[in-house]
Amino acid sequence: MSNIRFRALETALNRQPVNANLSEEKVSDYFAQNVFNQDQMLKYLSKDAFRAVMDAINHGVKIDRKMAGQVAIGMKEWANSKGATHYTHWFQPLTGLTAEKHDSFFEVSDGKALEHFSAGALVQQEPDASSFPSGGIRNTFEARGYTAWDPSSPAFIMERGGGKTLCIPTIFVSYTGETLDNKTPLLKALTALDKAAVEVCQYFDKDVTKVHATLGVEQEYFLVDTALLNTRPDLAITGRTLFGHAPAKGQQLEDHYFGSIPERVYAFMRDFETESYKLGIPLRTRHNEVAPAQFECAPIFEEVSVAVDHNTLLMDIMDRVARRHKLRVLLHEKPFAGINGSGKHNNWSMATDTGKNLLSPGRTPKTNFMFLTFFVNTIKAVEENADLIRASIASAGNDFRLGANEAPPAIISVFIGSYLSDVLSEVEKRVKKGTMDEQDQQLLKLDIHNKIPDLMLDNTDRNRTSPFAFTGNKFEVRAVGSSANCSSTMTVLNSIVATQLKEFKKEVDALIAGGETKDTAILSVLQKYITSSKRICFEGNNYSDEWAAEAKKRGLNNVKTTPEALDFYVSKKAIKVFTENNVLSEKEIHARHEIELEKYMKKVQIEGRMIGEIAMTHIVPAAVRYQQELAQSIQLSESAGVKEKSLKQQKELLNEMSEHISSIIRLVDEMTEARKKANEIEHMREKAIAYCHKVKPFFDEIREHCDKLELVVSDDLWSLPKYRELLFLR
Ligand code: ADP
Ligand code: MG
Question: Are strands 302-303 and 211-225 parallel, antiparallel or unpaired?
C-alpha cells in the first residue's frame, strides 16, 4: 500500500532496540569525566588561578585578565587531553533554548600549526547574535551583544557525532549592559536570596554565612517513533498533535504508570543517562508516567544555577540521543488531547553553609523555630506574589495544562498538609502580642521533625493536585511546563522570597528596637503572616469547580491564558521586586514581557497555519475520496435495484461527511481571515490577545470536524498516524 502512514507503521514495527556502546564501568568511575570540576582544576591550574576561580564561585570575586589567561591555558590543556578540538561559549538566550557557536583551538602562527586559547577567548566573545530575541533593547542594525564567562558554572566537554567541544558557560549581555539571557537574572536573584536569608539565619545561628537555594527538577516527556513523527507534520513542526481522535483505550486503565519499561525505551534511557553522567548530571530516577508513552526522569537536587544548567543540557542530550534510537522526545506540555500533559516539577529549598536544609523541620526547638520562620516566610512570599509566579509559568504550551481541566490549575495556591496547618493554627492562636509565656515557649518544642514523613505520605494524593506543595523538606512547584527553562520560575521564586525575608527582618528588628525579646518579636511577626497567608493555603482538590469558586471569593486570580498572565510581569509590584533585588531593570522587564508575548503569538500563528494546511491537504482530500467511493457505490447499488430503505444509512453517512467537509473548508477560511486581521495589529500585547481569543478558538472547532471524519473515513485512506498508533506502539 502506498499510504505513507502504513509505510511508517511498518518501519516502526520492525525496529529493534539500539544497544548503545554502554560502558561496563560503575557510574562513579566515569561520573563527571567531561567536566572541568574542582579535581581537574587542581590538576591543571596553578595554585593562584585555582584560588581565583574558587573565590569567583564562592564569593563572586572578579577574575582579572592575567589570571584569566592562566585559567585559559589550564582549561585548554585539559580539553585537549580529552580530545576536544573546538570551544564554544554556551549560553541560554531568551528563546528558552541553549545556544553555541563553535571555534577551533587550531591556529596557524608564523606558518606553524598549533592549538591556542587566550584569556580573551575565554572571557568574552561576540557571537553574531543579531537574531536572538532582545525585546527591542537591541535593534538588529546595531546587533552587538557579547557573552561573558560565568566561572560559577563549570566548563564541560560535549561529545557529538564523534567530535568533542569545550563548552564554556557564559552570560549574554548587550553592549549597553542589559541582560539578554535567562542566566543573569537568575544568578542575581540567587545572590539576593543568599544575602537576605543569611541575615535571617543570624537570628538563630551565628555560624551561617551563606545560603544557597537548591533545586531538583523532575522532567516529564513523551516518546514517539521517528517514522511516525515524520508522518505527522503537526507533531514535527509544533511538537503537539493538532488533530487526532481519542483512542478507544487511553489512560483510563492506568496500566502504564510504573509499569515495565519497553525495551527500546530502556535502551534509550540507559544511553542518555550515560551521556548525562559524563557531564556530571546526577540522574537518579526513571519510570513510566501515567499516560501511555509518557516517561519521567529526575536527578538528585543541586544548587539552583547548576540544576538549571543541567536541566537545559539534559533536554538537549535527550533530544539528540533519542534520534540515535529512532525515537523523538516530545517536551511539549500537551502533545495529545485527552491524555495527561507533561510538567517539570521544581523541587526547591534553601540550605546553609553549615549543612542545614532550612525547610526541613529540625530536631531541636532552635532548628524548629528556624524552620518555621523560613516555612512561613515562603508561604507569605507566595501569597504576596502568586500572580508573578503565574506569569513565570505562562507559555502557549502550558495554557493547555493550566487553563484546561488538568493538573495543576491556573490558580496559584499552597498545600502544606493537615499537620503543619494545625501547627500554624496553634501559633496563630497562642502567640499573644507583647508577651511570651511558658505555653508559647512550648510551641517551639513541637515534635515536627518526627511527624512530618508520615503526614506527608497521608497527603500525597491530595497534594498531587496542588501547584505549590510542601513535601516534607522542600516545596514542589508543579505548575512549570515540561519544555520550560526553569530559570524564569526560579528567578521569580528566589526574588520574592528574598524580598519577603528582608521585609520580615525589618519588622522583627523594629519590634526588638521597641523592647521585645527576639523570640517574641519573631513569633509575633510570623503570627501576623500566618493570618494574612491563609487565603493562599488550600488542602482540597485543586481541580474541582468548588475550588475555583472558593478561590474567587478569596480574591485569588484564575488567569487561564498567557497574554493576560504575562501582564503581571509588568505590574508595579513585580517591577519593585525585580528592581529592589537588582535582578532586572525596568527596561529589561518590559523587554522580557515583549519577548514572551511575541513567542506566544508566533507559536499560535504557526499552529494556525499548520491546522489550515493539514486540514486542507490531508484530511479533506481523504474524506473527499471516501465520499466519492461511497457516492459511487450508492449510485451503483440504486441502479442494481437495491432497495431505497437499505441505502438510507449510507446516504446519511454521506451527508454527514459532506457537512463536516464543508464546515472544515469554511472554518479554515474564517480562521485565515482572523489571522490576517490579527497580523495587522502592531501593538504586541493586543496582537497576542487577538491570536489568543480570535484565532485560537477556531482550532478546536476545526479539529472537532476532522476528528469526527477520522472515525468514519476508510482507514486505508487516512494518512496521519492515529493516536493508538502514536501512543501504544512498543
Ligand atoms: P517525590 O518523588 O515524592 O516527588 P523525591 O524524593 O523523589 O520526591 O524528590 C523529587 C526531587 O526532589 C528529586 O530531584 C530530589 O533530589 C529533590 N529534592 C529532595 N530534597 C530536596 C531539597 N532539599 N531541595 C531541592 N530538591 C530536593
Ligand atoms: Mg514529585
Answer: antiparallel
- Coarse DSSP helix, strand, coil percentages of the chain, rounded to the nearest 5 percent: 55, 15, 30
163 alpha carbon, distance to own chain's centre:
29
User: Stretch 332-359: mean pLDDT, rounded?
Assistant: 95
The DSSP letter of residue 714 is -
Helix axes 448-463, 418-430, angle to 10 degrees: 120
The mean-pLDDT minimum among 31-40, 86-95, 585-594, 613-622 falls in: 86-95
Q: pLDDT, tens digit, for every residue of 422-481?
A: 888 888 887 655 455 555 556 566 666 565 555 555 555 557 789 999 988 999 999 999
Number of H helices, E strands in the chain: 27, 17
Q: Where are the alpha helices (DSSP H) in 393-486?
A: 399-402, 418-430, 438-443, 448-463
Q: In whole angstroms, what is the distance from residue 572 CA to residue 308 CA?
A: 28
Are 488 and 392 in contact by the 8 Å Cβ rule? The answer is yes
Q: What is the CA radius of gyration of the chain?
A: 29
Contact 227, 1 (CB under 8 A): no
Ligand 2 centroid vs 476 CA: distance in angstroms? 7
Ligand 1 proximity of 482 Cβ (cutoff 6 Å): no
Dist CA 458 CA 259 (whole Å): 23
Rounded (10°) angle between helices 183-201 and 487-513 = 30
* Residues 6+ positions from 629 with CB-CB distance below 8 Å: 714
Is any atom of ligand 1 closer than 6 Å to the C-beta of 230? no
Instruction: Tell me the three cell numbers of residue 522.
Output: 519573631
The span from the CA of 122 to the CA of 236, in Å, is: 37
Q: Is the CB of 371 under 6 A from ligand 1?
A: no
Q: For 452, which DSSP code?
A: H
Q: Work out the number of other CB atoms within 10 angstroms of the CB of residue 422.
A: 12
| Kind plus residue range of the DSSP H or E element containing 158 | strand 156-160
Beta strands in 326-421, from DSSP E residues, in sequence order: 327-330, 344-352, 414-415
What is the β-pairing status of strands 86-90 and 163-174? Answer: parallel
The answer to whether residues 414 and 382 touch, using CB atoms and an 8 Å cutoff, is yes
Whether pLDDT at 517 is above 70: yes
Determine how many CB atoms are found less than 10 A away from the CB of residue 132. Answer: 18
Gap between the Cα atoms of 259 and 727, Å rounded = 15
How many Cβ atoms from other residues are within 10 Å of residue 251's Cβ?
Answer: 20
Q: What's the residue count for the chain?
A: 730
For residue 474 and ligand 1, the question of a CB distance below 6 A is answered with yes
Choose one of 474, 477, 494 to mutate for the ligand 1 pocket test, by most ligand atoms within 8 angstroms of C-beta: 474
Does the Cβ of 495 fall within 6 Å of ligand 1? no
- In tens, the pLDDT along 235-254 reads 999 999 999 998 876 665 45
Helix, coil or strand: residue 218: strand
One DSSP character per residue, 224-264 reads EEHHHHHT-HHHHHHSS-S--PPPSS-STT--STT-PPPHH
Of 490, 562, 597, 595, the C-alpha closest to 132 is: 595
Q: What H or E segment, with its residue span, contains residue 345?
A: strand 344-352
| Phi, psi angles (nearest 5°) of residue 366 | -65, -50
Residue 349 Cα: closest atom of ligand 1: 24
Provide the pLDDT for residue 131.
65
How many whole angstroms separate alpha carbon 657 and alpha carbon 254?
34
pLDDT (tens digit, 9 = 90+) per residue, 377-417?
A: 999 999 999 999 999 999 999 999 986 767 678 999 999 98
The answer to whether 381 and 504 are in contact (CB under 8 A) is no
**385 Cα: distance to centroid of ligand 1 (angstroms):** 24
Give first-to-last CA distance, the chain, whole Å.
22
Answer positive or negative: Cα dihedral of 690, 695, 699, 700. Answer: positive
* DSSP code at position 618: I
